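Newbie here. two chains, one complex. Structure please?
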Amino acid sequence: MAEKSVKTKTKKTGKKFIPDIVAFACNWCSYAGADTAGVNRMQYSPNFRVIRTMCSGRVTPGFVLRALKLGADGVLVSGCHFGDCHYIFGNYKAVEQFEKTKKLVKTLGFDERRIRLEWVSAAEGNRWAEVIDEFVAQITELGPSPLNNNHKS
Amino acid sequence: MEMAVTELKKNKALLCLECGKCTAVCPISAYDREFSPRRMLAEGIFYGGGDLISDKRLWSCLTCLLCSERCPVDVRYSEYMKGVREIAQKQGNWGEPSHGSALLHIMEMMTAPKLNQNRTGWINGNIKTAEKSDVLFFTGCLPYYEDFFAKDFDFHPISIAVDTVRILNHLKIKPAVLPNERCCGHDLYWLGKIDEFNKLRELNLKEFERSEAKTIVTACAECAYTLKELYVKKLGLNSIEVKHISELVAENIDRFKFKDQNLKITYQDPCRLGRHLNIYDSPRDAMKAVPGMDLNEMPHNKRGSICCGTTNWMNCGASSSRIQKARLTEAKNTGADTLVTACPKCQIHFRCSQCGKGKDKEKTDIKLKDFTNIIASAIDG
């Protein structure tokens, strides 16, 4: 349902580009980090939708590609810092998966800056806000994704 | 339900004698007792396919045509499966795609006309390609397989593309390579996603037209099948001729100079090249022409050859793995040291099977090579 509401919103705004970003956040660090940002009432860009995964290592290329296929302008994968993973080596696995995703996305002709891997811990609410702000700024600069059908440039 | 009946009629399923030969030969049924082509067909005939549509096993069929090969009344079972999948998929049923469905997403992403791919990075200085040429090399999904599988399997799918161009260069052909060709749509077609397939076909045909090529060469058995049957034959195109690289090599075998190889090989017939297209001899003739190449046939060969275990990146499970293990053991038992295939997917599936740990690891330990790798490494100069 979220997708539908997004579509009407961007259609109404007409030419102005508001990026749609999908953020995969791990349950133990990044999702809690996003919570911390909310609890601390930090002001940051609202253009992203968080999908909670149990671990960043679970985010296989299929997840990111599906988000892009459905028209996301950018995809953020976020997990615990190295050594902090709840499952000990999940984030190392995430790096491996992300490398693969990056190659595929590049071959598909997307700018590789559209996808990003970041580490945010549960205490780093301000870092989460910074990462999102920075990523939104970058995607706004890159413009809409070629698969985003809401923007006909 | 009415649609299921039309599918039955279209594929001659009402002629079914219920002899059960299909279930007896089906590679999946051999390891998965619950999967039975005869029962699935009977369900369609007697109950209009009601349960079949929501059955997860609907997506297990390999569409390898081994059942149709044995069928006394020539029921087109694979086509029937495709038709039922089309209905099932529209109702929201879906199997379990392997690899997190990443590869299926890539195919569907290519249906977007605005997508501008970056897929010609593999062309290096050692091989010659041209901007425009009469011969077009259709790479297929090889660049994506390279990104996805190269690290896991210690094998470079893109070497198949490089070696194909080397073979063409040896025949004094500089092929054109399209910078923005799409997936041929084979997997989406057999999974019943006909709308997506049509989009891919339209985009590809536009690219072909722009390239002004007369012959399209491909190194993939599935691409060869799709381009030949579903593009050229189905739409009645006269201007394009499609050839699998093995056909081209077999036709021009006199123009090759080979080095002595001293290799013992065995050949796996990809189901698309074999039973779907009836190309059995050209890869064999081409490989036999190389001096020192000793071709040993497996007990199941040519028309009776067994599939590599999975198709369309769908429902890869225990039965797939056991088919692969059995096939690799069969290959090993011929005494050959290399198993040659003419389809990149066969090789990927076999390599995946070899990755596992198990007691029978030694039994399945055989080198795997593509047809193009064998020919290109044998070329003298």
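Moderator note: The two ends of chain B are 61 Å apart (CA to CA). The longest strand of chain B covers residues 263-268. Thread marked as resolved.
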